[in-house]
Amino acid sequence: MRRRWVTALAGALLLVAATAGPAPAAAPITTAIYTADPAALVVGDTLHLYTGHDEAPTGGTNFVMRDWHAFTSTDATTFTDRGAKLSVQAFSWAGADAWAAEVEPRGGKYYWYASVNGNGAGWMDIGVAVADNPLGPFTDAKGGPLISDSTPNSSPLNIDPTVFTDDDGQVYMYWGSYYGLRAARLNPDMTSINGSVITPSGVSNFWEAPWMFKRNGTYYLAYAANDSACSAPGYACIRYATASNPLGPWTHRGVVMDQVSSTTNHPSIIEFKGQWYMVYHNAASPGGGNFRRSVTMDKLYWNADGTMQKVVQTTGPAGPANLALSATPSTSYVSPWETLGAVKDGHTPASSADHGNGAYGNWDHQGTEWIEYRWPSAQNIGKIETYWFDDNLGIDLPASCQVQYWNGSAYVNVPGQSACGVAANTFNLTSFTPVSTTRLRLSITSKPGYSTGVLEWRALS
Ligand code: FUB
Q1: Residues spanned by the domain of 234
Q2: Could you identify the atom of ligand 1 that is nearest to the CA of residue 54?
Q3: What pLDDT, on the 0 to 100 scale, is given for residue 321?
């Protein structure tokens, strides 16, 4: 079962040392450690983010997760790491795999529901720890799993709890993976389920990572889906459903977030100081990857009919938006085994040889080839950043490049273009007089005897 889950993920990536320090959203909430699976909770004027902690080594191909951290912020911009506030060791009956978790308050206490490897029959279980304070200390509240493979009608993989308290005080828990969403009522003790486990209906393409909340009398369930209509094979997007009853039936409402640069994603949607946010993870931190993820957040906006607008993934409040994320790529030629879409997955490569997240390459063509972005409506673009692929074999850094745009009838060079850099192991910034266009093209000319490739190509507003 573990193997099936792991093979749903893409390969591992290389490491560049992480740098310390708080960072503004939607930059990672920290680059000092790798974080994943955020769960947001507002207590007073403070936003708490409880996260998993990725510790996979460079090139690791599986999760290494031993504890969970708590971060706090009063402005949703700068976060302070309060440290590892819960670890697998807190559950004496568990042994490893500190996967997704969520904290829910009740009666002055804070209950931390956590996915752990229970060391027993089956694999993953859900345990619960409790504290008198949102920052702990937390201790095991039950002395055994709340949900395990022996729970009747449990999920094929019992992970990713989301716990929700309705206005009448009734508490609900949703959880699951491997397409197996489950739900149950919790008793007021918060450590036992009330009645049987149900299989909710209407949650289309559910894969894992549910997050439940309520707004204006409507229940919302956001979750990771990985169907081909919304993401590349092996990658998740975030879909959501709504209901008028906390146990459903649910009605699927669409995609609220496209795929990110990590194969997995895990949503947490919260209102803080009058602004709604999508908290999620990706692989954008330096040296990041599918098992070295980073939590970040972006603003979420509502339509008048109560549906959610798709979240725009940004690089931070001060940074320009990467318009590539919403573009459709095309090319004059891509080698059949390479992945054109990799150039717009938002990933930060560790080096020009780091094709762990996929790469565009045009071996064995030589001379000039191009890659292109198209948008359904005109975009204002004034910069690109290109990270070249060099496999130290047939693909080498290019001899030169040129940025072009569609002026309505032909491709022409962008005006005022700065040098189109061809350096290795870095993003090459090329700026130009901003153009308004539906198509942007990068024309790439190889060195004699070589082909060319691109790991990431950003188009910046
Ligand atoms: O972090 C381990 C697992 O990856 C989580 O439990 C899932 O939601 C996915 O993000």
Answers
A1: 34-300
A2: 1
A3: 67
